[in-house]
Every structure is written in structure tokens, then in C-alpha cells.
């Protein structure tokens, strides 16, 4: 796994030693492409344009961006913005100094995860917990092959439909409950995609899947977003391909998948069985999680808030 560590240089180098400690820790989790940020020696042999182009190429090659954003830096802010455009997972870490927090454009951005920490041990714990979820590559569906009978069947159908090759440019990810192993008989095969041109995406879906049983495709507004939804039946599965204009990683179905996966990993089989039981009784997935964790309010929104909770906070929510 390639990691792009981002930290202030010309914005101020007072935290360089801390960056070095973070980089050393990240080296245990993957390959850090930007080790130079942990050193005060500035390479003057390359031009600003070379730095810019090299670093953007590294952002592109990274699987994750970790940014320490306590010292305000134009370069770090710019890298984060470009990484969001590239649909990369981003973790920002900051310390409040003299009551001063970090920019609202970072803390308030739903395309990244922002954590406040106090010391290096805190930061390491946050990184350890976050990397556990991020390491799961949902784009590669081979994990289904070794799974439950329904997961193996899903794998076979998705291969036969060639969904992940045909829709490659739309960045498809299987979401919903089948990847999590908590599906019931009525669970769909949900595929989340990102389009850049809704009409083109709709036509493409029609061209490739229009002959499938009960095929329908429509464009509509949902919760303020313009979406394209194609549905059809394939063998025993209802397939739903869903496209929106924004990156899959920031779509709610994907974010729910990630947080639910993390909760299931943390709370184990007993919790999983309770979720399945509530679903069999007719509850939808997110309301089932919310009921068991005693979360009040809109379960779809409230579950997303757990993205920045620590493992121990999540564990204490469940009184088995
Ligand atoms: O010499 C450099 N090398 C380099 O890699 N950078 C990149 C990596 C850092 O994450 C970020 C720091 O930006 P700034 O220098 O504006 O604080 O920019 C920035 C500079 C100098 O701006």
C-alpha cells in the first residue's frame, strides 16, 4: 500500500520531528512516498514545477493520503483538494493549539476523515484503527469467492455479468449487505458507480444490460442529488446499479458499508447474528444497527457519525 504523507514545509517546519515519528509509524503499514517531509533538509536541486509534478504523481499513485494539518500550509491544503478530486481516502490529523482548531474547509469536508489528537500515541492509535478498514479493498470482489454460499453465488453472477470490467470507468463497488455477510433472502446486489455524464451512463447500462429480465433504467433526483438507477433480475438476484456524479468513496452506500464492516469486525459474531435477526424481522440494515447500538435520530445519518469514533467508543456502545 502506497501512503502519501503530507505536512507543512514552507508553511512552517516546527512540526517536522513529529512528522518523522508519524512517517516511521506509517512505514510499518505501507510504503511512504514522501519521507522527505520528516526532514528539515530542503532539496534545492529541483524546481518548484518539478516538486509540484512529482508530488501530484505520488498523490495519484497513493492508496491513501495522511495529512498532518496543525501547521497551516497552502501546499498541504492543495494536496488534499487534489486528492479528493482523485477519489482517494484521506485522513487528516490535527492538534488544537491555544484553543485554535484547524480550517473549517478541512474539518467540515465530508470527503475526508479529520481527527483531533493530543500526542503521538493518540495519533498512532487513530492511524492503526483507520488503516484496518481502509485496507479492505472493496473494489476487488475476489473475497466473495471464499465466503458464504450467497457470497459465492453473487461472485459467480457478477463475473457472468462482467460488471466490474464493463463498468470499470465508472469505478463500481459492490455495496449493501451481501459483502458484509448479513444478507437476507430479499437482499439486492447493489453496485455503486460514479458517472460524469448521466445520459451516457444511462445509455451504456441500457446497451449492456437492457436485455436482462425486467430491466429498467431511470434518472431522478434523490436527496438533492441527480442519480441514474438501473434494475434487473439475474438468476436469484435483484441487481441494482446506481450512479451519482460524486466519487463512490463519498457516496452514502459506500460509507455505510465501511462503517458497518468496522462495527461488525469490532463487535463480533453475536452482534452480527442480532443484526441478521432484526433484518429477518423486517428492519432495514441501518435501522437494525442503530437499534442495537441505541443510536437515536435518523439511523442513516447517525451511523455516518461513527466514522470518526474510536474502536473503544464503538465497543462501549454495545452491551451484549
Ligand atoms: O520542497 C517541497 N517539497 C514538497 O514535497 N512539498 C509538498 C509536500 C508537502 O506535503 C507540501 C507542503 O507544502 P508547503 O510547502 O506549502 O507547506 O508540499 C512542498 C515543498 C515546498 O513548498
UniProtKB/TrEMBL annotation:
Pfam families: DUF4269, Nuc_deoxyrib_tr. It is an enzyme of class 3 (hydrolase). Keywords: Glycosidase, Hydrolase, Nucleotide metabolism. It comes from the Bacteria. Substrate binds at residues 4-10, 19, 79, 103-105. SUPFAM superfamilies: N-(deoxy)ribosyltransferase-like (SSF52309). Gene3D superfamilies: 3.40.50.450. Its EC number is 3.2.2.-. It catalyses: a purine 2'-deoxyribonucleoside 5'-phosphate + H2O = a purine nucleobase + 2-deoxy-D-ribose 5-phosphate; a pyrimidine 2'-deoxyribonucleoside 5'-phosphate + H2O = a pyrimidine nucleobase + 2-deoxy-D-ribose 5-phosphate; 5-hydroxymethyl-dUMP + H2O = 5-hydroxymethyluracil + 2-deoxy-D-ribose 5-phosphate. Catalyzes the cleavage of the N-glycosidic bond of deoxyribonucleoside 5'-monophosphates to yield deoxyribose 5-phosphate and a purine or pyrimidine base. Belongs to the 2'-deoxynucleoside 5'-phosphate N-hydrolase 1 family. Monomer and homodimer. This is Putative 2'-deoxynucleoside 5'-phosphate N-hydrolase 1. It comes from Paralabilibaculum antarcticum. The lineage of its organism: Bacteria, Pseudomonadati, Bacteroidota, Bacteroidia, Marinilabiliales.
Amino acid at each position: 500500500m502506497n501512503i502519501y504523507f503530507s505536512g507543512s514545509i514552507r508553511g512552517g517546519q516546527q512540526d517536522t520531528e513529529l512528522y518523522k515519528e508519524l512517517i516511521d509509524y506509517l512505514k510499518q503499514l505501507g510504503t511512504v512516498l514522501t519521507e522527505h517531509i520528516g526532514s528539515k533538509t530542503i532539496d534545492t536541486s529541483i524546481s518548484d514545477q518539478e516538486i509540484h509534478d512529482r508530488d501530484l504523481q505520488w498523490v495519484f499513485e497513493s492508496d491513501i493520503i495522511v495529512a498532518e494539518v496543525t501547521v497551516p500550509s497552502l501546499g498541504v491544503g492543495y494536496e488534499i483538494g487534489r486528492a479528493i478530486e482523485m477519489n482517494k481516502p484521506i485522513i487528516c490529523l490535527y492538534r488544537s493549539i491555544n484553543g485554535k482548531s484547524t480550517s473549517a474547509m478541512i474539518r467540515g469536508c465530508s470527503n475526508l476523515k479529520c481527527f483531533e489528537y493530543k500526542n503521538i500515541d493518540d495519533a498512532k492509535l487513530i492511524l492503526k484503527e483507520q488503516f484496518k478498514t481502509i485496507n479492505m479493498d472493496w473494489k476487488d470482489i475476489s473475497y466473495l469467492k471464499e465466503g458464504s454460499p450467497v457470497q459465492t453465488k453473487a461472485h459467480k453472477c457478477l463475473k457472468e455479468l462482467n460488471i466490474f470490467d464493463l463498468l470499470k470507468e465508472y469505478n463500481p463497488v459492490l455495496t449493501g449487505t451481501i459483502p458484509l455477510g448479513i444478507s437476507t433472502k430479499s437482499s439486492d446486489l447493489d453496485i455503486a458507480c460514479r458517472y460524469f455524464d448521466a445520459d451516457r451512463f444511462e445509455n451504456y447500462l441500457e446497451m449492456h444490460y437492457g436485455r436482462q429480465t425486467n430491466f429498467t433504467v431511470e434518472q431522478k433526483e434523490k436527496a438533492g442529488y441527480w442519480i441514474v438507477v438501473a434494475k434487473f433480475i439475474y438468476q436469484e438476484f435483484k441487481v441494482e446499479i446506481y450512479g451519482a456524479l460524486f466519487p463512490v468513496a463519498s457516496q452514502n452506500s459506500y460509507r455505510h458499508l465501511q462503517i458497518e464492516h468496522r462495527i461488525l469486525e469490532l463487535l463480533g459474531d453475536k452482534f452480527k447474528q442480532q443484526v441478521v435477526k432484526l433484518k429477518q424481522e423486517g428492519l432495514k440494515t441501518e435501522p437494525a444497527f442503530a437499534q442495537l447500538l441505541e443510536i437515536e435520530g435518523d439511523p442513516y445519518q447517525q451511523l455516518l457519525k461513527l466514522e470518526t469514533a474510536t474502536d473503544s467508543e464503538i465497543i462501549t456502545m454495545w452491551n451484549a
